[in-house]
Specification:
By secondary structure, the chain is α/β, with parallel strands linked by helices. Helices cover about 30% and strands about 25% of the residues. The structure holds pyridoxal-5'-phosphate and lysine (LYS). The site of lysine (LYS) has 6 residues, from loops.
Length: about 425
């Protein structure tokens, strides 16, 4: 059964339960489409990283990559769990500030940080900026010098490692818009340039090889490549890194095709490799940082939709249409991403046929799921799509002037609205009359 592959249960009414709350009552009380998160699972995922580092006695920081899902409530949970936070824009930093997230635990990314973004990071006294390109080194150096301030930074590098994932979410390959290239000497040039800016405290290297990755081997190759560069800087300049940030990218299960490994295994493997490399280089073990996004929230979220029209093309396929689509989950249209779902009010019933789930946008490519096994299905049934917690709400759009759905957190059998459903007034609120 599909449900057995996802961390949710079925109650005595045959309804899907999320965190102990009936999905039908959630759909009824809050409307659909609706993003629902089981907060206990978010906490469990976060702890599996943090506790493993503790168990190994390693000095570490786990930063939640807030691009996966950022909202005030979400960041409050992350803060409660003691994680750090990765932001990539002024908007994500603003959300963190509004959530009261401790600024020293915030790290800023981005491949084109503006003067304004860097200035905001300085004003907020965030913990670290991850520099991505030469333009930023000069911009940050000048801003800090003007204000007589200092900042901890990491240098993001691309190690030239192709991760086994969709081309659009590979980031460690040589032909990448992110970071300083290691192979062609750019990273070394950046290292030399950083010496000119005493206000920039260069703490170490950062590398993120991509997203939705299931093996540890590419992470280990990337680590080895980073250490080769660090060994050169030690030999030539006696540079000793204090921090090594190995990014995020740990894969989750969307469908039966995905075989995720326990998050602990990434931590064990990477700590062992960093230990080995540090010993070979004869330096103290640097602090190890990680940045999981999807691994923290992906499998904790479910999207509930109401089924509307249905269309059968005999001998070809049966379509069911839902009240959302690519506006609340862009991933199928953008990456051909696959999902699994159940009919929430028939979650105990055996599938008898396959249907394809269409969104309601004016695009033939707005298909959420192809060939989903379902029991007999009717208009007004509620469809629950699993593993929509990461990059769903955060990539939602107003295409076709759809209002963004609400977000509900469920914990201890209680449901709480944490992001309001947008109204159509919200959709037009920045439009100005031309008359
Ligand atoms: C720099 C950086 N860190 C962390 C992440 C989080 O990735 P994921 O959600 O796959 O863990 C990303 C996104 O791929 C990223 O670009
Ligand atoms: N948005 C992507 C991941 C991007 C990761 C950030 N660099 C996804 O849904 O899989």
């Amino acid at each position: 059964m599909i449900i057995d592959r996802h961390p949710f249960t079925v109650n005595s009414h045959g309804h899907l339960e999320i965190g102990g709350v009936d999905a039908l009552s959630l759909a009824h009380d809050f409307g659909t489409p609706l993003y629902v998160y089981d907060v206990s699972l978010i906490r469990r995922n976060a702890r599996s990283f943090v506790d493993t580092f503790k168990e190994l006695g390693v000095n570490a920081k786990v930063a939640y990559a807030s691009k996966a899902f950022s909202s005030i409530a979400m960041l409050q949970v992350i803060q409660q769990e003691g994680l750090c936070l990765d932001v990539v824009s002024e908007g994500e930093l603003y959300t963190a500030v509004e959530a009261g997230f401790p600024s020293e635990r915030i790290h800023m990314h981005g491949n084109n940080k503006s003067r304004q973004e860097l200035q905001m990071a300085i004003e907020q006294n965030i913990g670290c900026i991850v520099l991505d390109n030469f333009y930023e080194i000069e911009l940050l150096g000048d801003l800090l010098d003007q204000q007589n301030k200092e900042m901890d930074v990491l240098m993001r590098v691309t190690p030239g490692v192709n991760s086994k994932t969709h081309q659009y979410i590979m980031t460690g390959n040589e032909d990448s818009k992110f970071g300083f290239n290691l192979k062609n000497g750019q990273a070394d040039k950046a290292f030399q340039l950083l010496k000119k800016y005493p206000s920039i405290r260069f703490k170490g290297l950062h590398c993120h090889i991509g997203s939705q990755i299931f093996e540890t081997d590419r992470f280990l190759s990337a680590t080895e490549i980073l250490f080769a560069e660090l060994a050169k800087w030690k030999r030539n300049d006696n540079y000793i890194p204090e921090v090594l940030n190995l990014g995020g990218g740990f894969g989750i299960r969307y469908t039966s095709e995905d075989e995720p490994i326990p998050y602990e295994q990434y931590v064990y493997a990477l700590v062992e490799e960093v230990r080995k490399q540090s010993e070979e280089m004869d330096i103290p073990l640097p602090e190890i940082w990680m940045e999981p996004g999807r691994a923290i929230v992906g499998n904790t979220g479910v999207t509930l939709y109401t089924i509307g029209s249905m269309k059968s093309i005999p001998g070809i396929r049966e379509y069911i249409s839902v009240d959302g689509g690519m506006t609340d989950n862009l991933r199928p249209a953008l990456y051909g991403a696959k999902y699994e779902a159940v009919i929430a009010n028939k979650a105990d019933q055996t599938p008898v046929k396959e249907v394809s789930v269409a969104g309601k946008c004016c695009e033939s490519g707005d298909m959420l799921i192809w060939d989903l096994p379902v029991p007999e299905v009717q208009t007004n049934d509620v469809l629950a799509v699993f593993s929509t917690g990461a990059y769903g709400y955060s990539m939602a759009s107003h295409y076709n002037r759809f209002a963004k759905p609400a977000v509900v957190f469920v914990e201890n059998k209680e449901a709480k609205l944490v992001v309001k459903r947008e109204s159509y007034q919200d959709v037009v609120k920045n439009d100005l009359s031309y008359l």
